[in-house]
Design brief:
The complex is a heterodimer of chains A (582) and B (378). Chain A has 582 residues and is α+β, with helices and mostly antiparallel strands. Chain A folds into three domains: 66 residues, no CATH class; 131 residues, Penicillin-binding protein 2a (Domain 2) (Alpha-Beta Complex), CATH 3.90.1310.10; 335 residues, Beta-lactamase (3-Layer(aba) Sandwich). In chain A, α3 packs across α4. Chain B is mainly α and 378 residues long. Chain B has one domain. Chain B is 69% helix and 3% strand. A three-stranded antiparallel sheet of chain B has the order 1-2-3, with helices on one face. In chain B, β1 and β2 form a beta hairpin. The longest helix of chain B is centred in the C-terminal third of the chain and has 34 residues. The radius of gyration of chain B is 21 Å and the shape is globular. Chain B starts with 13 loop residues before the first helix and ends in an 11-residue tail after the last helix. The chains are: A alpha+beta (582), B mainly alpha (378). At the A-B interface, α1, α3 and α4 of A face α7, α10, α12 and α13 of B.
Chain lengths: 582, 378
């Protein structure tokens, strides 16, 4: 080939022909043309050289790709296209970064009925592609004279493919995003919901709607801990089922920061499903206002001790029931003797609490309840918060009833905040659902003397050690608390059989870190409780189980104590394993 | 070979003379390319046809009609004398220009560009015919203005015609065709002895036009961006093409065994080289590059021997066009440059392109025929 290519075919010249050539008309006296021709030839060699070079490069590249470029071609094939669709709404995570709410890209199917050629055929094809649609509905939509109707939202890629494959004129897809809650009902009440336009309509989704949409790349970190939330929900479900209650709520708070680590309200719902307004959407923990019952005696003792009207060893006459205007105050566990402050707590004496409150005085009682935040609206980040129902006007009789938790209704989160203040040394911090770094914790407001807090811790521990709350005890964790059993008010009076049974607790009592509140709405007693449905029999065991499960998760080691024969850790293991049936 | 010669030296008929004077090596190379084209169309196009819902052999049948037609055109045109070629170029150029103007009015818009005139059973792309005919006209103008001392304003006419052609092409718009026409025209001007200052100016102007196209046309920018940074956009097609070459290896996966034709939308035209690489391997690819290089360089060598400036300029222009198209197509598939839709001469499916290339190649053969005297046209 090369021979052929480069062989210069010299023109054969007869002898004398070179002379002859100069006589030819076109070769004579025409230097312009000859010079141009010479230059053209020279330059053509340059062009030819360039072409040759390019062809050589192509050959080189061919060999390279075929033989050596496996790495490059492989890499390019492997590399997924960077089509991360930017979402318009930020994720919500728990305190450890577990995703609680996220947005996924999806498509919505809509139609322009004016463009649809044959509504009947289009509807038939649509229904074969999406069998969950109703033929009649689709036909009606496609036959309308609107220019835009949604046929179905949130199609899966497979469904989109099925629609595309049928090539129905007039149907189009709209890019959208869908809010997804991977944990289902676990956090439903806290996180809330968005509407079809991804606009927050409840819970944190509503409160932080602007924050989530303005910074869609920065996730919102909550104070909640998925693990604790799961434990509380699990144990609460068990108790609600066991006592055939209509509902329940459970809260865990960090007593030093005010952060809520768990907040459960039963019954709950799956936020990923269709949302129909129902009782399940009611957030008992923040919106439910309840007369709490005996747990309020802790606040009565706080007012008396911190206000200076009583000391721990002060004694009150509980020998007989007390008539106060048309109320008769009687005890559930009558002791019929004079009781110390400790004994009033241990035996949950209404008479003693009433006398303690009267001695402290209405003004002091109101003052301390207000300091603990129990008379103010709940300052929480979600919109569904309750404002306490406070007696108005507040007469002396109200002081008496409030002393044992009736006539004043607050939310469970109010209780968690107040209990935290009682045990953390007397610092009041508003509850929060947003994660706070330890150094970012609110400094809080001192509302009690540290000494009062110490007394309250002792009282709460005594209730669990020897009082109505023994079923909440977990060996090694020094659980302290107070039982509460309130009769729910029904149409002006109180219903004997409709109880609100609760247990408010904190642990470990030698250095409290967490407050745990469990409230069970209308439990029924059963054989295992000998028919009792009080807080000590229904809510206290649930608190004990929650503590036994959450402490190892949070890395709190049990403390070995002399008063139990068994090694502590094995007792806990047994307790967790057996579900703390005792 | 000797026994296959159908004509004796004594045969002085037109065909007989043609056989003895035409460059049979180039003729053979072109015929081989056409054969490879038929083979590859058979391999690549059924997948494409099925994807667009046409009968499997839709493109194969059409290609089978075009090949003899193209061969006939090559032969007929190569029979002509230099003077006829020149006339053919001039007339063809005027007709093509007219049709391009017509395209703007009655043209059919395909993929965002108006390039086609629909005829029954066939869509004609007039701009394809501009390329060979304009090369001949340019060569005529340049050589005429250098033919004698008395100044024929050939250069100026060439400049004006060039402006008109580019304007029409950009109106369609057809960036790729503009590029080819511009390069051919510039090289012809260069060969015709353009001053080095002007050469420099042309190069700079070309660079500026390239930058201008980048900012003016979105699809140009997107393709250049994706070439420079494959991650910046969808580089799926080119990645698949590269994979195909690698998969094919030295001897290929075998006819019909390739997969790349199933995923690339233009497997029978712009990416046919990748199909060749996958199914027939490096050997066929090298043969194809070799054939293109041979046709171009041998044509140049024949042009060098001519004493006619017109022949030199026209032949070079036609061959530059032919070679440039091949280079752009192959380099695109090999990711040596941003992807540019360009047919691979005589290989890719495409009627207008093939017929126009046949006209061009016929002219090359006609111009490079050995002639007594080999002097310039009077």
């Amino acid at each position: 080939m090369s021979i052929v290519l480069f062989r210069r075919c010299e023109r054969f010249l007869y002898p004398g022909a070179d002379v002859l050539a100069t006589r030819l008309p076109w070769g004579r006296h025409n230097d312009t043309r000859q010079r141009a021709l010479d230059m053209g030839r020279t330059r053509l060699l340059v062009v030819g050289g360039v072409f040759l070079l390019v062809f050589v490069v192509i050959v080189g590249r061919l060999v390279e790709i075929t033989a050596f470029a496996s790495e490059e071609s492989g890499r390019e094939a492997r590399r997924a296209p960077k089509t991360m669709v930017p979402m318009g709404r930020a994720d919500i995570t728990d305190r450890n970064g577990i995703v609680l709410a996220t947005s996924l890209p999806t498509v919505n199917l809509y139609a322009d009925p004016r463009v649809v050629l044959d509504p009947e055929e289009a509807a038939r094809k649509t229904v074969t592609a999406l069998p969950d649609l109703n033929f009649g509905d689709v036909l009606e939509k496609l036959s309308s004279d609107k220019s835009f109707v949604y046929l179905k939202r949130y199609l899966t890629p497979n469904q989109q493919y099925e629609i595309n494959r049928r090539g129905i004129v007039g149907l189009s897809f709209e890019q959208g995003e869908r809010r997804v809650y991977p944990h289902g009902p676990l956090m439903a009440h806290v996180i809330g919901a968005v509407d079809t336009d991804n606009h927050g309509i409840a819970g944190l989704e509503k409160t932080f709607n602007d924050r989530l949409t303005v910074h869609p790349d920065r996730s919102l970190s909550l104070s909640l801990d998925v693990r604790l939330q799961h434990i509380v929900r699990d144990e609460l479900l068990r108790s609600v089922g066991e006592f055939r209650a209509m509902g329940g709520t459970g809260v865990i708070a960090d007593v030093h920061t005010g952060e809520l680590l768990a907040m459960v309200s039963l019954p709950d719902f799956d936020p990923n499903g269709s949302q129909n307004a129902s009782d399940a959407q009611f957030n008992r923990a923040t919106l439910g206002l309840y007369e709490m019952g005996s747990t309020f005696k802790l606040f009565t003792a706080t007012a008396a001790l911190d206000g200076g009207s009583a000391r721990l060893e002060s004694r009150y006459d509980a020998t007989n029931m007390v008539k106060f205007s048309h109320f008769t105050i009687r005890d559930y566990h009558p002791q019929n003797r004079w009781l110390s402050v400790s004994e009033i707590m241990i035996h949950s004496s209404n008479i003693g609490a009433a006398r303690m409150a009267l001695e402290a005085g209405t003004k002091t009682m109101r003052e301390y309840l207000d300091r603990l935040g129990l008379l103010r609206p709940l300052p929480l980040e979600i919109p569904e918060t309750g404002t306490p129902i406070v007696p108005n006007p507040w007469r002396e009789i109200n002081t008496v009833t409030v002393s044992y938790g009736h006539g004043l209704a607050v939310t469970p989160v109010h209780m968690a905040t107040a209990i935290s203040t009682l045990v953390n040394g007397g610092i009041h911090r508003p509850a929060t659902l947003i994660r706070r770094a330890p150094e970012m914790a609110e400094s809080g407001e001192r509302v009690l003397k540290p000494e009062t807090s110490r007394h309250l811790r002792r009282l709460m521990r005594q209730v669990v050690e020897e009082g109505t709350g023994t079923k909440a005890d977990v060996p090694g964790y020094f659980v302290g608390g107070k039982t509460g059993t309130a009769e729910k008010s029904r149409g002006g009076g109180y219903a004997r059989k409709a109880l609100l049974s609760s247990f408010v607790a904190a642990f470990p009592m030698d250095d409290p870190r967490y407050a745990v509140i469990v409230i069970i709405d209308e439990p029924e007693g059963n054989k295992s409780t000998f028919g009792y449905a009080t807080g000590g029999w229904t809510a206290a065991p649930a608190v004990g189980r929650v503590v036994a499960r959450m402490a190892p998760v949070l890395g709190i080691a049990p403390v070995h104590t002399d008063w139990t024969e068994q090694p502590v850790h094995s007792a806990i293991v047994r307790m967790v394993a057996s579900g703390a049936k005792e | 070979m000797m026994r296959a010669i159908p004509f004796t030296r004594l045969d002085t008929s037109a065909v007989g003379r043609w056989w003895w004077t035409v460059d049979r090596w180039t003729l053979g190379a072109v015929a081989t390319l056409m054969g490879i084209g038929a083979l590859l169309t058979l391999a690549a196009s059924p997948a494409v046809a099925q994807r667009i819902g046409a009968p499997s052999f839709h493109f194969v049948y059409r290609h089978a009609v075009f090949i003899p037609l193209a061969a006939g055109i090559v032969w007929l045109v190569s029979l002509q004398t230099h003077r006829t070629v020149r006339r053919l170029g001039a007339i063809g150029f005027l007709v093509s220009m007219g049709l391009m103007l017509l395209t703007l009015v009655v043209g059919e818009e395909v993929k965002g560009a108006t390039r086609w005139i629909t005829l029954p059973g066939f869509s004609l792309q007039p701009s394809e015919f501009i390329k060979p005919t304009f090369a001949v006209v340019t060569a005529w103008m340049f050589s005429e203005s250098r033919a004698s001392a008395n100044a024929f304003p050939g250069d100026w006419i060439a400049v004006v015609l060039y402006g008109a052609v580019i304007l029409l092409l950009l109106l369609q718009p057809d960036i790729g065709m503009s590029l080819v026409v511009s390069v051919v025209w510039a090289i012809q001007y260069f060969l015709a002895g353009l001053g080095l200052f002007w050469v420099l100016l042309l190069v700079v102007g070309g660079l500026f036009s390239g930058v201008g196209a980048y900012f003016l046309f979105d699809h140009v920018r997107s393709r250049v961006d994706r070439f420079l940074d494959p991650d910046s956009g969808d580089s799926y097609q080119i990645a698949k093409a590269l994979q195909a070459f690698h998969k094919g290896g030295l001897i290929g996966t075998g006819p019909g065994e390739g997969r790349v034709k199933e995923v690339l939308p233009d497997a029978h035209t712009d990416f046919i080289f990748a199909v060749a690489g996958e199914e027939f391997g490096l050997i066929l690819c090298l043969l194809m590059v070799g054939l293109f290089a041979f046709v171009v360089l041998r044509g140049f060598a024949r042009a060098l021997r001519s004493d006619s400036l017109f022949v030199l300029l026209a032949t070079s222009g036609l061959l530059v066009q032919f070679g440039l198209q091949a280079i752009i197509n192959m380099a695109s598939s090999l990711r040596l440059m941003p992807t540019k839709g360009m047919t691979l001469p005589f290989i890719s499916y495409g009627g207008s392109s093939m017929l126009a290339l046949s006209v061009g190649m016929g002219m090359v053969l006609a111009l490079t025929r050995r002639q007594a005297g080999e002097g310039d046209l009077p």
